[in-house]
Amino acid sequence: MIIVSIYVDDIVYTGGSNTLLNEFKRDMMQKYEMTDLGLLHHFLGMGVLQTERGVFIHQSKYAKSLLAKFGLEDCKSVTIPLPTGEKLKKIDGSELTDEGLYRQIVGSLLYLTATRPDIMYAASLLSRFMHGPTKKHMGIAKRVLRYIQGTLSYGIEFTRDKEAVLIGFCDSDWAGSEDDSRSTSGYAFSFGSGVFSWASVKQNTVALSTAEAEYVSAAGATAQAIWLRFVLDDFGELQADATPLFCDNMSAISMAKNPVFHQRTRHINRKYHFIREALQQGSIDVKYCRSEEQLADIFTKALPKDRFNYLRMKLGVKPVSSLGEAVEN
Fold this sequence. Notes:
The structure is a single chain. The chain is of the alpha+beta class. It folds into 3 domains: about 1-40, no CATH class; about 60-155 and about 315-320, no CATH class; about 165-300, Nucleotidyltransferase, domain 5 (2-Layer Sandwich). The protein contains 9 helices and 12 strands. It has helices at about 20-30, 60-70, 100-110, 120-125, 135-150, 210-235, 250-255, 275-280, 305-315, and strands at about 1-5, 10-15, 40-45, 45-50, 55-60, 155-160, 165-175, 185-190, 195-200, 245, 285-290, 315-320. The strands form 3 sheets. A 5-stranded antiparallel β-sheet has the order 3-4-5-6-12. It has a 5-stranded mixed β-sheet with strand order 9-8-7-10-11. The chain has a two-stranded antiparallel sheet with strand order 1-2. Helix 2 (about 60-70) packs across helix 5 (about 135-150) and helix 3 (about 100-110) runs antiparallel to helix 4.
C-alpha cells in the first residue's frame, strides 16, 4: 500500500515498499514538473524529525515566530500554561483590551495545538472570549506564550515496534464554565505510542451531575472513535476488537451499558445515547480507569505542575533533546 497526502502543490507519500515508492515518484516526475526534496523534514509549518526509534513532529520554528511577532522573544518562561484552578469569565472586572491583537494570539495558539496537545485546553478556554476580551484574558494569553518560550523544542514522538491498537480516553470537568455552568469535554486517542487525535470543547448543554457530564463526554469520544476506526480500516489497519474507551466515572459507565431509561437519564438528549448502540455493535468498550491515569484530564481543567508534567509525558509530548540521532537522507 502507498499513502499519498496532497495539499495544493505539496505532496507527502509513504508506504511499505521502497520499490512501490520509487515507481510512484518516477511516474509522477514524468507527468508533472516536480522537485524531489528527499526525506520529509517540513510540511505545512510542521517540522518532522525521523530517527531510528520513530518519528517526531514539532512546530518549533512556528513557535519562535509567534514570540517574535508578539514581542515576547526575550520573555521569562513559566512551567505551566495556566495558573492552577484558573477559570476565566466574560466579565471579570478588568478593562477591555485590544480585540484584534487578542484574536491573533489565540488563533496562533490554536494552530500550534496541531503538535502541542499540552496547550489544547488553554487555547480552547481563551477562544471563548474572542469578542470583548479583557486585560485579564490578554494576560492569560501572554502567559501561555511564556509557557511556549520554555518548551520551544517540544513535540510529539511516535515510536515503532508498538502494538497498533486504537485506545481512547475521555473526561470532563463538571460545570467548569463560570458564565453558563456548562462542562468541558476532553478526549485523546493513541495508536501504540503518542496521541494523534485530541480535543477540548465546551459541551452544548448544561449537565445536571458529574455522571451526566462524563456521559456526554464519552458520547463525543465514541463518535470520534467510530470515525477513526473507519479511517484506519482504509489504511489497512482494521480494528477487529472493540476500541477501549477509558472513563474514570463508574456512574457514567453504568449509564452507557444500561439500556433502561430510568430517572437519572431520561432528561439527557437522545443524541448522546448512541454510545449504547456502539457498545452493542462492538465498536467500543467503555472501561474504568483510575483518575490518576486519566490522560484526558489535561484537556478539561488547569492542573498543578506535577500533574500537568506527568500527563504531558504520557501524551508523548517531549523535547527534541530526548530523541536519538536523526536518520539521514
